């Protein structure tokens, strides 16, 4: 028997465990059906470990110290003879770094950083080759420094050709090619490879024959394609690209002046320093003096000495023509850069000027004009634009969706009405949201108007106004709150309940009117979803539409419950509600009921039932269904004399159907002074057999209302006092 009982216990435990596992499995499946994007609880497969040399057995960590922390800490320490020192983490990362087999030139920041070094080497050649050729700054004493920098730049060029350019991904037939052989062939067939090969011509070997002439390094300046690629990549990652454009245009102007100053010193040296008044006289800093002359020439300021020789005249004429052309190009490019940087501001000013001109033409009042100007000012400074849709209209639908998810999904996902709906339906809805700015004290919606929108507060606060004067603040909604999708914004004040009816987005018949005013408290940014847009979306998602209908009905049902069910204080009761009976006392009353209903506890039990019935009857009287009067007469007299001849309290299904037992104190039988069946509108009079209690049912002017009056004689009152 013991073995059998132990086996049955094991079987029961196993069954309970299986039931628990099935429940957990069911919950997981249910979550996946509701939200298919939920990640699985299964562990991701780990990569197979590579073959390594056998390591020593790990030493168990001391008590109280987790093993993972100990292992992570040991990785940063190296033992060397008798010393233990800590390695730098960045050095470990550098040792473990593996160069990528392919590089995305559009998004890889490492490639942008490498282009920066290439451009720096290119600028070294472009700026210093003319200086070393024209000015006597390269001497035999410092020639080794110049050559060291030159060959360092050549090494950067060589690395760019062999390592980086052969690993750049490219697009062919719509596919991104990452194959090493294909990427190398694509670079070898490109125009850039030809220019890179040309700029690396080894003309430096001619140094052995003609000497170190900087002009032999002029082909290094042909790597201009890396410069323009760096400009494009840098502008793509900068938040304010116009700043870099202004700096780049200024650098163009400075470089043209730099080349002109070098040519002027070369011309002066050709004619002879100080030979005429036009050439450089050889005093002061040669580069600064020549640069000053170049600035005055290109900008055509004037005040320069006249050329004397034919060479000087031809050189000056060419310099003037080149200066006018170059300077006009620089000024035009600078204007375009500044204009592009301030295009949004210009559009904003033009819109405001047009609006002000329109309001002045139609003589709009000044307060309205001031509010319009305030709206323009706040919208521009808060958003940086007047209409967000104009900015995104050129993007494809997928990119607009990605931006809308990043901007609006966190707010929309908090709406209880849309939780559990199809995720793609939520995404489609995000693209239909419109951003609107409301000024302080602006009406978002007014009482009595037809609601066709749902509002989501992005920033700021709104207030729901109500009360007799319509100015009482019922509730304040903050950022992240939603109103207008269904009857859900409520506020109870005393015995009154005020509801804000939303747009009724899910109402089939429409025509829902708002029952309260909503005013912006300060500046408020709201997202608006139209009913038309939501209906167009729900056509393609029938399951979500059913779910929304179900939620809407549930919310309306909860909002329309009687005040007694919600805990709202209603009208005062004739018999105030009593606290719940203690459980021990209820058990005693139940025991007396089983014993036959005799004794004081039985009488007390009947009194409690009678009290509950009176309270239920009072609620029934408030509803006006006629059961209340009959119930009270039944409890007081034992039977009812209804004027219609039909007793509501004795109908089937009523809680007061059982006839109460005889009272142990009084035994009264009703004595009516009128016939039981009377016509409507007549007064009903009844009293007990001992004439101590009398009842009057008096009709009123309204058909569905009657007055019940109960009179107790002085004898009855004296008995109750005793």
TrEMBL record:
Residues 32-70, 656-682 are annotated as: Disordered. SUPFAM superfamilies: cAMP-binding domain-like, Voltage-gated potassium channels. The chain crosses the membrane at residues 111-135, 141-164. Residues 417-538 form the Cyclic nucleotide-binding domain. Keywords: cGMP, cGMP-binding, Ion channel, Ion transport, Ligand-gated ion channel, Membrane, Nucleotide-binding, Sensory transduction, Transmembrane, Transmembrane helix, Transport, Vision. PANTHER family: CYCLIC NUCLEOTIDE-GATED CATION CHANNEL BETA-1, CYCLIC NUCLEOTIDE-GATED CATION CHANNEL SUBUNIT A. GO terms for biological process: retina homeostasis; visual perception. It is found in: Membrane. InterPro entries: CNG_cation_channel, cNMP-bd_CS, cNMP-bd_dom, cNMP-bd_dom_sf, RmlC-like_jellyroll. One of its GO terms (cellular component) is plasma membrane. It is a multi-pass membrane protein. It catalyses: Na(+)(in) = Na(+)(out); K(+)(in) = K(+)(out). This is Cyclic nucleotide-gated cation channel beta-1. One of its GO terms (molecular function) is protein-containing complex binding. Residues 45-56 have a biased composition (Low complexity). It comes from Cuculus canorus (Common cuckoo). Residues 664-678 have a biased composition (Basic residues).
């Amino acid at each position: 028997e013991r073995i059998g009982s132990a086996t049955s216990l094991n079987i029961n435990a196993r069954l309970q465990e299986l039931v628990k596992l099935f429940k957990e499995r069911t919950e997981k499946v249910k979550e996946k059906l509701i939200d298919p994007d939920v990640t699985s609880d299964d562990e991701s497969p780990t990569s197979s470990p590579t073959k390594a040399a056998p390591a020593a057995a790990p030493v168990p960590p001391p008590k109280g110290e987790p093993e993972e922390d100990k292992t992570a800490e040991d990785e940063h320490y190296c033992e060397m003879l008798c010393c233990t020192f800590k390695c730098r983490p960045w050095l470990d990362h550098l040792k473990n770094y593996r160069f990528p087999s392919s590089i995305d030139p559009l998004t890889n920041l490492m490639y942008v950083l490498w282009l920066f070094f290439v451009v720096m080497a290119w600028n070294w050649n472009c700026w210093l080759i003319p200086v070393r050729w024209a000015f006597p700054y390269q001497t035999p004493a410092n020639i080794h420094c110049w050559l060291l920098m030159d060959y360092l730049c050549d090494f950067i060029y060589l690395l760019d050709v062999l390592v980086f350019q052969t690993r750049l991904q490219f697009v062919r037939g719509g596919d991104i090619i990452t194959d090493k052989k294909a990427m190398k062939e694509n670079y070898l067939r490109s125009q850039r490879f030809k220019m890179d090969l040309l700029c690396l011509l080894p003309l430096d070997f001619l140094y052995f024959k003609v000497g170190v002439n900087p002009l032999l390094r002029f082909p290094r300046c042909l790597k201009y394609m890396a410069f323009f690629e760096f400009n494009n990549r840098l502008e793509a990652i900068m938040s304010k690209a116009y700043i870099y454009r202004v700096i780049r245009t200024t650098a163009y102007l400075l470089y043209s002046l730099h080349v002109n100053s070098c040519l002027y010193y070369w011309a002066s040296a050709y004619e002879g320093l100080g030979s005429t008044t036009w050439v450089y006289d050889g005093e002061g800093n040669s580069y600064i003096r020549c640069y000053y002359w170049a600035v005055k020439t290109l900008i055509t300021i004037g005040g320069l000495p006249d050329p004397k020789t034919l060479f000087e005249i031809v050189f000056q004429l060419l310099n003037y023509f080149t200066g006018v052309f170059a300077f006009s190009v620089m000024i035009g490019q600078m204007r375009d850069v500044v204009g592009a940087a301030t295009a949004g501001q210009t559009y904003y000013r033009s819109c405001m000027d047009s609006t002000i001109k329109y309001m002045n033409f139609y003589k709009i009042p000044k307060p309205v004009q001031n509010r319009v100007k305030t709206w323009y000012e706040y919208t521009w400074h808060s958003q940086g634009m007047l209409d967000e849709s104009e900015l995104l209209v050129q993007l494809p639908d997928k990119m607009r969706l990605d931006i809308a998810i990043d901007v609006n999904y966190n707010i929309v996902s908090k709406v209880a009405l849309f939780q559990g709906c199809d995720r793609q339906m939520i995404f489609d809805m995000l693209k239909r949201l419109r951003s609107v700015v409301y000024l302080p004290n602006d009406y978002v919606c007014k009482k009595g108007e037809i609601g066709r929108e749902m509002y989501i507060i992005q920033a700021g606060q709104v207030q729901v106004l109500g009360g007799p004067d319509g100015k009482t603040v019922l509730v304040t909604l903050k950022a992240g709150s939603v109103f207008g999708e269904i009857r859900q914004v409520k506020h109870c004040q005393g015995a009154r309940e005020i509801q804000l009816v939303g747009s009724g987005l899910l109402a089939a018949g429409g025509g829902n009117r708002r029952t309260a005013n909503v005013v912006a408290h300060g500046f408020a940014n709201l997202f608006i979803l139209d009913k038309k847009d939501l209906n167009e979306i729900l056509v393609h998602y029938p399951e979500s539409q059913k779910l929304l209908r179900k939620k809407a009905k549930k919310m309306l049902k909860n909002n329309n419950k009687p005040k007694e069910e919600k805990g709202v204080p209603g009208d005062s009761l004739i018999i105030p509600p009593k606290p719940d009976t203690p459980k021990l006392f209820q058990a005693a009353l139940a025991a007396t009921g089983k014993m036959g209903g005799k004794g004081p506890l039985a009488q007390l039990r009947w009194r409690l039932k009678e009290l509950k019935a009176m309270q239920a009857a009072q609620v029934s009287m408030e509803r006006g269904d006629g059961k209340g009067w009959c119930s009270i007469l039944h409890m007081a007299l034992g039977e009812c004399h209804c004027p219609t001849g039909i007793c509501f309290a004795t109908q089937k299904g009523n809680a007061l159907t059982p006839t109460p037992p005889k009272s142990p104190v009084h035994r009264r039988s009703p004595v009516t002074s009128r016939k039981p069946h009377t016509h409507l509108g007549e007064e009903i009079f009844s009293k007990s057999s001992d004439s101590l209690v009398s009842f009057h049912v008096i009709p009123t002017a309204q058909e569905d209302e009657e007055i019940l009056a109960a009179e107790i004689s002085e004898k009855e009152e004296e008995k109750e006092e005793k």
